[in-house]
Amino acid sequence: MTALLETKSLTIRFGGLTAVDSFNLSINEGDLFGLIGPNGAGKTTVFNMLTGVYLPTEGTAQFDGQLINGKNPVQVARLGISRTFQNIRLFDELSVLENAMTGAHQHARLTVWESLFRLPRHYKEEARQRERAYELLAFMGLDDRAGLTAKQLPYGHRRKLEIARALATEPRLICLDEPAAGMNTGEKSELSALIRKIRDELNVTVLVIEHDMKLVMGICEKVQVLDYGETIALGTPREVQNDPKVIEAYLGGD
Ligand SMILES: Nc1ncnc2c1ncn2[C@@H]1O[C@H](COP(=O)(O)OP(=O)(O)O)[C@@H](O)[C@H]1O
Ligand SMILES: [Mg+2]
Questions:
Q1: What atom of ligand 1 comes closest to residue 15's alpha carbon?
Q2: Is the pLDDT of residue 103 over 90?
Q3: Do the domain assignments include residue 87?
Q4: HSE, side-chain direction, 13 A CA sphere, residue 214
Q5: Whose CA is nearest to atom 11 of ligand 1?
Q6: I need a labelling partner for 197 at 20 to 30 A (CA). Which of 84, 125, 207, 220 fits?
């Protein structure tokens, strides 16, 4: 089986700091894969290299056999990778539905001419996007708030809206950057179930960065641990949890 996402020796340096060092990752279609590690380990930087935000200094990343380092964020999204951000990025003044639609919009199946002249297909496409965005809001349990502005949503719901928007691009792989950050215990367990449903019902492969060990251990089948830019462990949650290097990194870190 060839991997859906594969990185080889992915490395990035900022001045004298090697933020991610020779990072190898292999994710198969259908995986629910966790990337964990102490603060500053390089997790978000990995996402940034995978989604065209940062250009790696060395190494390669391939998605479905295609080289993705060097592609910009829009090109990467078109290939089928979508993400959420550790610091929520929503359009505060737009409605919840419109925010979700911005994801679908990125995926529009229109030519410039069709959009410019508002040809019939333009309206059809907009209706399709609206419907899909609404379905995804329902999936995330936000459909009853579709008409609110994003800034009216409480924090936990804002995180879920970001996920709905990322799903609206119809990705094959979704990368979630600390989706449970700032959530209470009830919201976290609800989110765990949702992440599983994303993989099981929407058939989207999931790569999740998470600080909450309990959440990662509860949902991920494979976990890779980063510390100071280097992989220190890879295995099942149980294997990783009992790894002395991992215990040391977490106890010695924050
Ligand atoms: N654009 C940048 N310029 C300089 N240093 C950066 C930049 N982006 C990330 N870093 C550094 O890379 C390291 C890893 O950061 P990050 O990937 O955000 O960690 P994590 O997400 O695991 O908490 C940190 O030391 C951070 O300061
Ligand atoms: Mg981070």
A1: 4
A2: no
A3: no
A4: 7
A5: 19
A6: 125
